[in-house]
Amino acid sequence: MAKITREQVLKLAKLAKLKLADDEIDNLVPELQAILGYVEILNSADVGDIKPTYQVTGLKNVMRRDEVVDYSEMLAKLMSNIPSVEKGHIKVKRVLT
Questions:
Q1: d(CA 84, CA 93)
Q2: Which of 9, 21, 43, 68 is least surrounded by CB atoms within 10 angstroms?
Q3: Residue 90, beta-bridge partner list
Q4: Cα torsion for 76, 78, 83, 89, to the nearest 10°?
Q5: How far from 41 is each of 1, 12, 32, 36, CA to CA, in Å?
Q6: Residue 59 Ramachandran class (φ > 0 left, ψ -120 to 50 alpha, else beta)
Q7: Residue 57 pLDDT
Q8: Across-strand partners of 86?
Q9: Nearest to 78 by CA among 86, 90, 69, 87
Q10: Each residue's pLDDT tens digit in the chain (97 positions)?
Q11: Rounded CA gap, 75 and 47, in Å?
Q12: What is the pLDDT of residue 38?
């Protein structure tokens, strides 16, 4: 069974930026040892014949090619729908005061 020391608990608490009281540290030592014991049990399981399950829904990513579209011909038509244009840019009301 895995052994964890009080010093290791203090180091973990420091890394996690946790402030623990002495009684909390004393309670965490056996709890963390039990957790590590369960992890050892899981590590000892024979999973050699089991295929990894990465995705269970059967959905796949659908990809499309990136294509460059030149909208310069349509620019004048697009800009004609805008209420206010100044020097080829869309003019809007002030957002920040």
A1: 10
A2: 68
A3: 85
A4: -70
A5: 9, 23, 14, 9
A6: beta
A7: 87
A8: 89
A9: 90
A10: 678 999 999 999 999 999 999 999 999 999 999 999 999 999 999 988 988 888 888 888 889 999 998 887 788 888 888 888 888 888 988 888 7
A11: 60
A12: 93
Q: Are residues 37 and 29 in contact, defined by beta-carbon separation less than 8 angstroms?
A: no
What is the three-state SS of the chain?
CCCCCHHHHHHHHHHCCCCCCHHHHHHHHHHHHHHHHHHHHHHCCCCCCCCCCCCCCCCCCCCCCCCCCCCHHHHHHHHCCCCCEECCEECCCCCCC
- Between the CA of residue 54 and those of 6, 47, 57, 59, 60, what are the distances in Å? 37, 15, 10, 11, 12
**Identity of the amino acid at 39:** V
